[in-house]
Amino acid sequence: MFIKLISNILILIFLFSCFNDSKVKEFPTIDNNNLNITFSLTTKKLSARKAAYIFLALPKSDEIKTWLDDKLISYANPFFNLKILDDDGFVLFKINIELKKTTRIVDEQDNTISYEYQGEIDLKNLEYKSFTSWSVGWSGFGDVPKKKPLTQQEVNATFDEIFGKTQEQLDADKREEERNATFDEVFGKTLEQLDREKRENENNTTQE
């Protein structure tokens, strides 16, 4: 009886560990400033010998999106190199993902949002719970496009956003004031002047 109880307890512990070990793991995102892309990785244990993963590459500018879209149809064969690491930083598994094999995720206007790839890992003698961190590299992409310089209009807009009105806007305001003053001189008195004269006439009538 005692032996059977211990056996049942061990089975429950084993089943619990298997269940706990197969939860989804969302690894910290990686921001690559050289490529101007944010990478994400999510894994899930499917069985004792298999794990699934979803890899995402999210471009952070329109220039990078266009550049990657062009790479999809070019003769080049660039790829991302993923490494899954343990607590001590040792590489447990390597995955090469070709850009051409990724799925392009788009919005309603067919603008690229991200590039996605889903695959499986053969765990063999690896323990899924030992997957604790990851890194990502790249190869075959060539020169990364440089960020376009701001136009004068964009510079003015940025200046205005931070410091207030631009000199051009201040000059325009001044010209508007001058036009208003000229209009008053040529065509008559302002509403303020008319109101003041009306009040003066009412005071004079009261005094009489």
Tell me about this structure:
Strand 5 (79-85) and strand 6 form a beta hairpin. The strands form 2 sheets. Strands 1, 2, 3, 4, 7 and 8 form a 6-stranded antiparallel β-sheet that branches. The protein has 2 domains: 21-139; 152-207, no CATH class. The protein is an alpha+beta fold. It starts with a helix and ends with a helix. Mean pLDDT is 77; it is low at 9-20. The chain has 5 helices and 9 strands; from the N terminus they run H-E-E-E-E-H-E-E-E-E-E-H-H-H.
Beta-strand share of residues = 25-35%
Series of H and E elements: HEEEEHEEEEEHHH
Computed structural class: alpha+beta
Distance between the termini: 121 Å
Topology (elements, then pairings):
Blueprint: H1 2-21, E1 25-26, E2 30-32, E3 37-45, E4 50-59, H2 62-72, E5 79-85, E6 91-98, E7 103-106, E8 112-122, E9 133-139, H3 152-163, H4 167-187, H5 191-207
Antiparallel strand pairs: 1-3, 2-3, 3-4, 4-8, 5-6, 5-9, 7-8
What is the compact description of this entry?
The chain is an alpha+beta fold and 208 residues long.
